[in-house]
Write a structure and sequence with these properties.
The protein is 36% helix and 21% strand. By secondary structure, it is an alpha/beta fold. The strands form two sheets. Strands 2-1-6-7-8 form a five-stranded parallel beta sheet, sandwiched between helices. A three-stranded antiparallel beta sheet has the order 3-4-5. This is Phosphoribosyltransferase.
Length: 213
């Protein structure tokens, strides 16, 4: 199968074909990029679209270098082998975790206001993102979802690194990935158009797909 997608929406349409047997799930997109992947899935399957907000936990000397992640409703998840190589412990990152919790809460307020996440207890849940690189963000999201007692959880992404995809199978009931390229280097290399999304873009998708109630 061709591993280069035109954009996130086309990737989501192809994922939706693979997920067609799941009836009316709660589809949780990891913002920002995951929302454009998730929208065609909800359009095809029905159900509910919402966001599950996550934040990367950065390496203090180079914050863009992620060593962990946190998702709303969940606890921090760290790449422990990486921390060991860097000579760090999770406790060393308490300040970074606190800062990301604050930013996570701000983004939840922007995207959802006072509305809580949908009730996931006993439900079919699809967690959608635009790709899997290290997987630490997806792992944090899946663990937060698992804590809510869903009936079944599927992780759906268009493309991912081979080792990461394999590791995610321990975190979800099913992992649906369209392409696992041998030469994976970054998610964006597998899209012709991979522009950054804004908060306004996320809100526009959510407005088109309002949660019931």
């Amino acid at each position: 199968m061709e591993c280069v997608f035109v954009d996130r929406a086309q990737a989501g349409e192809r994922l939706a074909e693979r997920l067609a047997g799941i009836p009316g799930p709660v589809v949780l997109a990891l913002p920002r990029g995951g929302v454009e992947v998730a929208e065609p899935i909800v359009r095809r399957l029905g159900g509910v679209l919402d966001v599950l907000v996550t934040r990367k936990i950065g390496y203090p000397p180079s914050p863009e270098f992620g060593v962990g992640a946190i998702a709303e409703g969940g606890e921090p998840v760290f790449d422990l082998p990486l921390l060991h190589r860097l000579g760090l412990t999770p406790e060393d990152l308490a300040g970074e975790v606190a800062a990301e919790r604050r930013e996570l809460a701000r983004r939840v307020a922007v995207y959802r206001g006072d509305r809580p996440l949908p009730d996931l207890a006993g439900r079919e849940v699809v967690v959608a993102d635009d790709g899997l690189a290290t997987g630490v963000t997806a792992r944090a999201a899946l663990r937060a979802v698992a804590a809510a007692g869903p009936g079944r959880v599927t992780l759906a992404v268009p493309v991912g690194a081979r080792d990461t995809v394999s590791a995610m199978r321990e975190e979800a009931d099913e992992v649906v990935v369209l392409c696992v390229p041998a030469d994976f280097r970054a998610v964006g290399q597998w899209y012709e158009h991979f522009g950054q999304l804004s908060d306004a873009d996320v809100l526009e998708v959510l407005a088109r797909n309002p949660a019931p109630g």
